[in-house]
Structure formats: C-alpha cells, structure tokens
Design brief:
With 699 residues, the protein is α/β, with parallel strands linked by helices. The chain folds into 3 domains: 175 residues, Glycoside hydrolase, family 3, N-terminal domain (TIM Barrel), CATH 3.20.20.300; 214 residues, Rossmann fold; 119 residues, Immunoglobulin-like, CATH 2.60.40. It contains 21 helices and 25 strands. The strands form 8 sheets. Strands 9-16-15-12-10-11 form a 6-stranded mixed beta sheet, with helices on both faces.
C-alpha cells in the first residue's frame, strides 16, 4: 500500500472519531474503539539489537558492537531478522488477543545520537561517534527493519531528536547548547539521512536544545524535520518527556499547556500520560480539533502501512519456527565474530585450540550474561559466556574460573559472604599457563538513568575513563603473577586499562556487549578460528586525557574529528591475523553528487579475512571549522589468502563539504585530501597498523 492510499484511508477512519476518541489515540497505549472495529494498540516496542522484552528472541550484539563491523550490509540483514521475529511474535500476540506493551510492530530504534563523550552511559545504544558511520549504518538498519514490500514489515524510529547525549542525571531539565555549525555538521546529519531514507518514526529527546524542549521544538520539529526535510511520518515523545516540559524545564505552567505546545510542534504520539490533558487544552482553546486530527491521521497512516486493517494481514505466513531458528543463530554468531576488535597482539594470538595446559578465566564478566546482553535487550534461549566459550573451544585445557571482584563496589565482608574475591582471582591466575582477564561493565554501571551514584558512575554515566578501581587492582595483581595475559574487555564505551595492564597484556580484545553467543566468538578469536576485522566506532582515550566539560556540547576537543592530543586507540582502528596491502588508488570520477574512488587490496597474509576499507577527507584550507579527518566512505570485503580485489567506493559530496557558521554545507575553499586505507590516517593509527594510508587530492 502506498503512502497516499494509506493516508486517505487514515483520513476516512479518523473522520468517524469523536474529539475524545482522537485524543485517546495519541497516547502510546491507544485503547480500542470497538464501534469502529479498532483494536487496542501499544506503540512502545524495542528492537535495537533484537526484539526486546517480549519472550525469546535472537539477542544480537548491541548497537555499538554492530557499529564496529563497519558493514552496512550485515547491519541491514540483522534489521531484517529483527523485523521477521517481530512479525512472528506480533502474529501470535494478535492471535491470542495480547495487545500489551512490547507486543506491537513499531520499534523505537535505532538510536542515532552521536556518542560525543565517552562518559555517556547510553553511548552503547548508538553507532558511535562519527556522523557518516551513524547515518550509513542507521539507514541500513532501518531498511532491514522496514523492508521493501507493499507494507512495512515493521517500523523503525530514529531517536533521540536531537542534540542528545547526556548527562543522564540531569537530562529531564538539561539545556544542550549547540551552534549551527556543530548542529549541522555533527548532530543532525544522521537524522537527515535516515529521514530521507524513509524512516517511519522520529522520537524527540528529553532535554532542551538551545532553550526549547526537544519534544516541543518549533525549529527542530517544524522548521527542520517537517518543512526542510519533508518528514511525513510520526513523531513520538521520549517516555515521560512531555511531563518534563512543565515539571522540569518549567517551559509551561500546566500539563495542558505542555500538551498543547508539543501537539502544535507536531509531536503526534505521547509516550507517557501528558496527552490525557489534551481534552483540557482543547476546551481551553490551546489547540484546535484540526491539530488533533492531523496527528491522529499520521498515526493511522502508519497503522495502515503496517497492514493492521487488511483482511489477511501481511507477513502472517511467516512460520513460527523461524523464531530463534538455526539460520538466525548462525547470523548472530557471525555478527559476534565480526564485531570483535583486536586492539593489541604481541604475537601470543592465536592460541592453538589443542592447547592442553591450564587456562584461568578471571574477572567480573567471565560468567556474566548481562555483559552479553547490553541494554534494551531481549531474552535468548541460550547464552555462551566467555568462560563457557573457552571451555568449548579449548577442550583439552584445564579451565578454572574466578570472578575475582565486583564491577566497581569493593566490600570485603558482607553478611552474605565475601563479595570481593580478589585473592581467589590472583591464585587461579598464578597457577595458570594462560590467563584470560574478562573485565568491563554492564548496564547496571553504564546505562540509562540508573539512579545509581558512586565514585565511578553517576546515574549511568562514567566519572572516569579508566577501569573501576577494584578491577584495576585485580588486573594489575594478575599481571604480577602470570606472564601470558589476554584481556577481553566487555563494555559499551572507551576504557583505558592503565599503563601496567596495557603494556603487560600480550593481547587485548574489545568485545563490547557482543550478544547471546559473544563469549564463544571471543574464545574463537583467541584460538584463531577467524581473523578479527572489527574497527573502533569510537576513540579510546587515554584515561588522563583532558576532556571538555561533559555538559559542553561544542565539538571542540571531541571525537577523532576534533580531538586535542593523541588517542590511546583511534577511531577506525583494529588489528587482524592477516595482512592487507593497499595499492593503485585512483579517483575514477567526479560529478556534482559523488566522487568515486577505487583501490586494489591484496591479502598478503596467511588467512582469509574481512577488510574494512575506509576513505577519510581533510581540508587544505577553510575559513570554517573542519575536522582533522572525516570518514566519508567505507566498504567491507572478504578476501581470501593471496587474493587481490579491486574495491570501488562512492563518496557522497554531502560528506566532504564544509559547514559554515549558519549550518549550510558549502564547497570548501581549498583542496580536499582523500586518504584510502584500512584505518584513519592519523599518526597513532599509522604507527599501530604499520603503514600509511594512500593520499589522493581533489578540488
């Protein structure tokens, strides 16, 4: 069904509703209207990396882990599986009359906010710190979720619009201030690109941006989203955000006034209960029936496009056996392998899987399921932790496991027993020939507005870029007693392991929150069953890096694009077990819309592997602020041992234009340098990878 036909049907249906009925449909838990044959529908569902909070489903690597694949095709395939499992579940929910929360087809994902500060607890939900990467992978995810059929397979939602990335503790009353340059160069591009790619929903943020609440923002919602970008889908508030308008932002005095300003800014759907007061706003002439009707029509257009009112609902023939099926599990396993980033390898890896000595698996994430899941997660039918994976892969080894410590709370004598088992962790490492330290965090430490505040975290945001002190103590003690140490870091952000651990460890693997079978993928990497190919979607800063104030939304000093000083491990970096050589890079064509670059990539190593080819741009002269380097193209390609592949990449000129002080994209004053290779062209990446990128120049 095309949008015009769906919109017409929505118009006809909404015309039969009373004002009170229309208002009731603007709440996320929309009630049934029996006289019109309309069933209840709850709009709130989550699917960032698998159908969430609704029984068994495939739990894929979290979004930040997916980002490290640098592979849009893989992300689109994952999105397609998520909507397949979403349809399977929806079909059963409808069959059994279950219209409760987390049972619908409107997934409030992806989160395409820019991970501008490594302390932000929700950065794990994003595609990282780069606008191009976020836009490219976000668009791929949306296409996978929504499909290309006559009806939406499911609906995706780009969130949180816009300029939103902490602090969690003050998000309900915080005002994020960003100038037009940063707005249009960094914070808005991923939203613009996903809107123009056809995303069906956009969610507003909790905070204010430049004075106005994001869910009642005349400039962002009306001038930019609706008028400039011609977005004709639905806008939903973040959950409880409309209540913030009068309670925390003090933007209005009453609930009715808050509801009115949001509706006038075309916020169609309220996750929360503030739109209960729309009837008061209507009776006080704060809103018109036409405004209420327009919102209801946009929402029902979506419901028609999902096929809710068809005699035979679309996708109702997907068999239940496809849920959590073998093919989906195999894809999840592959995704977990592809998301692993090898940060260091002093030659210890790979370890032959016939290794028959003692392996100690030590650390708070050794047996953690929550560290596999991340947040906004579903529930898998099987989990394979790192300790489980090591046992499966190294079947001849003697494997011992100790937690060693908690994530960040150190307590030696609770009534329930010893909660800090550091001596046991040290002891098992001292007896081992090889120790795998499984460190990091989980959603209780870094996450969304946890309400938990201690020396390490403030409501889910980190206070430091180092490991928590209790883990640092354990890790350094293990390094004192064991020569062969491998670190597997499981978290959703940048963490510095400290000089002693970083220098002593023979290998370091950033595993993120890698999904239900991520522990198996980590063990397989250690055994060399595949060549790691993940790339950092964020900068890993040195722990003592002089970061800007967390509340400062200026991009100065932030991310690889504007960093002051050097990174510990740069954006775009990741090691492999094989060796890729780049040669014969040329600019094939230049036109108004795009630039095409091609390059030969040779696998000169001993293993087949995936390479993440990347193109960065820098500017020789500009009167406006421009990044050190700007990712502008990428390609994931599998290359067999000894093979040479000619890789072609298109650069959308949008991404290499300079952004002026008014937020307009303009042709740069001077020349543009392009850098082609498997990493960012900064000096740290060149040194770590052992080669420089190929440099090209264009006007």
């Amino acid at each position: 069904m095309d949008k015009i036909k769906a919109a017409q049907k929505a118009k006809e249906l909404v015309a039969q509703m009373t004002v009170e009925e229309k208002i009731s449909q603007l709440l996320y838990n929309s009630p049934a209207i029996e006289r019109l044959g309309i069933e209840a529908y709850n709009w709130w569902n989550e699917g960032a990396h698998g159908v969430a909070r609704s029984g068994t489903a495939t739990v894929f690597p979290h979004t930040i882990a997916m980002a490290s694949t640098f592979d849009p095709e893989l992300i689109q395939t994952i999105g397609d599986v998520i909507s397949t499992e979403g349809r399977i579940k929806y079909n059963q929910h409808v069959k059994y009359g279950d219209h409760d929360i987390f049972k619908g087809l409107t997934f409030w994902a992806p989160n395409i906010n820019i991970f501008r500060d490594p302390r932000w607890g929700r950065g794990q939900e994003t595609f990282g710190e780069d606008p191009y990467l976020s836009a490219t992978l976000g668009t791929a995810f949306i296409k996978g979720v929504q499909g290309d059929g006559e009806f939406y397979k499911a609906c995706a939602c780009s969130k949180h619009f816009a300029v939103h990335s902490g602090p969690e503790k003050t998000r309900h009353g915080f005002d994020a201030k960003a100038d037009m340059h940063d707005m249009y160069e960094t914070y808005l591009p991923a939203f613009e690109k996903t809107v123009k790619a056809g995303v069906s929903g956009v969610m507003g943020a909790y905070n204010r941006t430049n004075g106005d609440p994001c869910c009642a923002h005349p400039y962002l919602l009306v001038d930019v989203l609706r008028n400039k970008w011609n977005f004709d889908g639905y806008i939903v508030s973040d959950c409880g955000a409309l209540g913030d308008i009068y309670r925390d932002h003090h933007y209005t005095d009453t609930k009715a006034e808050a509801a009115a300003v949001a509706l006038k800014c075309t916020c169609d759907l309220n996750c929360g209960d503030t739109y209960d007061a729309l009837i008061d706003a209507y009776e006080q002439d704060l809103v018109t029936e036409e405004q209420i009707t327009a919102a209801a029509e946009r929402l029902y257009t979506i419901r028609y496009l999902l096929g809710e009112f068809e005699e035979v609902r679309p996708y109702s023939d997907i068999p239940f056996k496809k849920l959590d099926c073998k093919e989906h599990k195999e894809l999840n396993h592959h995704a977990a392998q592809q998301c692993m980033v090898m940060l260091k390898n002093d030659g210890l890896l790979p370890i032959d899987k016939s290794f028959n000595k003692r392996i100690a698996v030590v650390g708070p994430n050794a047996l953690s399921v929550t560290a596999l899941e991340g947040n906004y997660n579903g529930y898998a039918s099987e989990y394979i932790t790192v300790a489980d994976g090591v046992r499966r892969v190294f079947k001849d080894a003697t494997v011992t496991v100790e937690k060693g410590c908690n994530y960040c709370d150190e307590s030696l004598n609770h009534w329930s027993g010893f909660q800090n088992m550091i001596s046991d962790g040290i002891a098992t490492a001292a007896e081992a020939d090889l120790t795998i330290l499984v460190l990091g965090l989980d959603q209780s430490i870094e996450g969304e507005d946890t309400g938990f505040d201690n020396d390490y975290t403030a409501c889910g945001d980190k206070k430091t870029l180092y490991l928590p002190a209790t883990q640092q103590k354990l890790a350094e003690a293990v390094c004192d007693v064991c020569d062969n140490v491998i670190v597997v870091l499981m978290c959703g952000s940048s963490i510095d392991l400290g000089e002693k651990v970083t220098s002593h460890a023979k290998a370091i693997i950033h595993a993120w929150y890698p999904g239900a079978v991520g522990g198996l993928a980590a063990a397989e990497l250690i055994a060399g069953e595949f060549s790691p190919a993940g790339r950092l979607p964020v900068t890993i800063f040195k722990g003592d890096h002089d970061m800007p104030d967390f509340e400062d939304y200026s991009m100065k000093g932030r991310t690889y694009r504007y960093i002051n000083g050097e990174a510990l491990f740069p954006f775009g970096y990741g090691l492999s077990f094989t060796k890729f050589n780049y040669s014969n890079a040329v600019v094939d064509s230049i036109d108004e819309d795009k630039i095409t670059v091609s390059v030969d990539i040779t696998n000169a190593g001993d293993m087949t592997g995936y390479e993440r080819a990347q193109v960065y741009a820098s500017y020789t002269d500009s009167r406006y602020a421009t990044p050190h380097y700007q990712l502008c193209a990428l390609k994931s390609v599998e290359i067999t041992k000894g093979e040479t592949v000619r890789v072609t990449m298109d650069i959308d000129r949008y991404w290499i234009k300079a952004v002026n002080d008014d937020g307009e994209r303009v042709e740069p004053d001077g020349k543009i340098k392009l850098y082609v290779g498997g990493h960012q062209p900064d000096s740290v990446s060149n040194a770590l990878m052992g080669y420089d990128c190929i440099e090209l120049e264009i006007k």
